[in-house]
Fold this protein.
Amino acid sequence: MSEPTKYALPEDRIPTSWVNLIPDLPGEPLPPLSPATMEPAGPPDLAPIFPMALIEQEVSGEPEVEIPDEVREIYSLWRPTPLFRARRLERALDTPAHIYYKYEGVSPAGSHKPNSAVPQAYYNREAGTRKLVTETGAGQWGSSLALACRLFGLECEVFMVGVSYDQKPYRRAMIETWGATIHRSPSELTEAGRSQASHPSGSLGIAISEAVEVAAAAEDTNYALGSVLNHVCLHQTVIGQECIEQLELAGEYPDVVIGCVGGGSNFAGVAFPFLRRRLREGGATRFVAAEPSACPTLTRGEYRYDFGDTVGMTPLMPMYTLGHDFVPPELHSGGLRYHGDSPLVSALVKAGVVDAVAIAQTSAFAAAIRFAETEGIIPAPEAAHAIRAAIDEAEAAKEAAEERVILFNLSGHGHFDMSAYDAYHRGELADLEFSEADMEAALARLPETPAIA
């Protein structure tokens, strides 16, 4: 027992500010574009669906944004989250690497998503919003926003991606337990949903279109997004800030930082505080964004202006994209089935500061099983991609005989994903094919926009 397994911080070490990486990005940030004019979008383009406080955070150039006391008080229900040294996994791999994981599955919703759901609900309540509408893939974001709305007295309506709605009935029950209304997307409730009836499995892009349509139609209703946007990535940086302090307790600093990537919030949360140090002070820390090979936005997509939703209701954002109406295969990592990515994460990949890797579904689940067998925690399929990347890094360290320090974000537990594990154990989980032809066709349908260098 002389070697610590977990590193904990007291509640008074919950960060007091979020880290805004925008001032440190290489080059000038590219603005979103209004779909009506193709000119840079401003607050009037976002005001119909977001409160002004979040719009200001979206474009802020301040290096830090203060966290309201009421938000920190709710954070204290589960934050600071523990940092673990994966000693049993290290022994199983026979690696000289030191593997650490930040476990966000201890939140009430079982993932990192409440880190942004709580402040989004707070700022909307302060602005007099009555109801929030959102999308969700695997259900982690939908359940987190349902909880946050319950805590702040707001109504909540969720459009859940069809394939995940079918695969994860207990996530639906969790969302309803916290008082939210939930619909299978695409639905018959919106024009956007009806227009996508030919894609019954749904996608995050379709669900976003439905939620935005509902929010834009009512003055007392706003939209809340669980990833991609700058203010969402901002809120998640509590993760990495805590990691810095916890690794100081361990007397270490990471050689590589890893997160899974669908829209980018999980990766941003763990990586951005370390990235700020790398961009300001230099150093050799590497950053790895792990995505599914069936929806390889960063590794196979193009860096273009594109809509954040399928129907084309949102501003166009500069990002790696597969095309806004590209519908990914029905992989079990529902939170990673998104055609685009965070503009901030995309800019960092484009600049060569962040590396992206694509991981096959069965390879991710094999890593998840190995992790569960050694560390005990059954991870969400999304987080399994980060585990796979961490194991690959540890095996590379063994090959090179290097004592490498690896940090990854374990962004959620897999308690509602056991049907996927069951399919894996029965040999029925396949590696789904990515269609290059479908991507090329979707990219060809993008609107004419200014070229990105």
Notes: The first helix runs from residue 43 to 46.
